[in-house]
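Session log. Operator J.P. requested a structure for one protein chain; no other inputs attached. Running the standard single-chain path with token output.
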Amino acid sequence: MTQALLLLMLSLLLWFGWALLLAAVGIAVQATDRNEPVAVDARLIALAAREAGARVTLSALGWLAFGRSRPIPVAPGNGRTPRRTPPVLLVPGLTWNRASLWPMRTFLVQRGFAWVWATDRGGRERPLAAEAGDLARTVEELARAAGTDRVDIVAFSTGGLVAAWYLRHHGGDRVRRLITLGTPWKGTRMAVFGRGRGVEELRFGGHALDGLWPPPVPTTCIHSPDDPVVVPASSGAPEHGGDLVAVESAGHVDMLLSARVYRAVQVALSAGEPAGEPT
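Structure written below.
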């Protein structure tokens, strides 16, 4: 038992070290892109540590059984008075499954959003067009199950690009609003470190993402100027066409565990909500 515990602790330590290295590389690339020196201070160390910790935590969640099987859209029935907003569909990033969105889903359910459903992605090798086709079917499935005509989408990272592709090429009649977190609208220089068809489309300066911004529905773009994955930072905060919400000193995966991001998502989802609804 002691040997197994030590092995587990060593594995977690190595895992955290690797995640910390990834965060440090991203921070260095971001600083280089800005033509600034990397000022290693308490804020930067805290950002890297939170980013690494978020990667390890959510990766571990992804290995659990509930992050593997396809979910069935059902209302949680937690006894709270439901909001009158449409059901919410959560879309993960490129290499993440729906388990990474479990903390955010829990937050929204506890705030009275009756229908919050997280979906999965197809992996690195699938292009945006194929992912968008899957999302179109998922939106229809959720709308039918909830008995509604409209759905709100909250998408993390490249999930926002999938949602935008779906809205642009499959029509946006089913979607009331789109909220994105750390989405690289113009691509990212960090894509050179990845592999797969889905990653190639994300390379900064390419044309695969042309025409996706702004989406044809009201859009709130939540971003961080310090995001170590979205480089340059301006790719995460495109001008004209949407509401921008900056979360200072936040990482990339760190956004999925950030109370500040959760509150920003809640505010965006509640836009146009009748007075007197639960908060």
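Operator note: DSSP finds seven helices and six strands in the chain.
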